[in-house]
Sequence to fold (62 residues):
Amino acid sequence: MKNKKEKTNSNYASGQAVISLALIDYLKMLERLRPDLWAVIGERIKSEKGKFNYYRRNPDSL
Fold:
């Protein structure tokens, strides 16, 4: 039973890695094709970063 759980966790981590790599590739392409849009997204990420960290620490606030 333990092996099955480890395999499930491994598959989940592997899936997250694939999604992360795909997102990074997409953002790099976006930066190259639409630098104006990339600048807007970058500013939005900076402004939301503190809020994200707050909600991650205090999930009951959502």
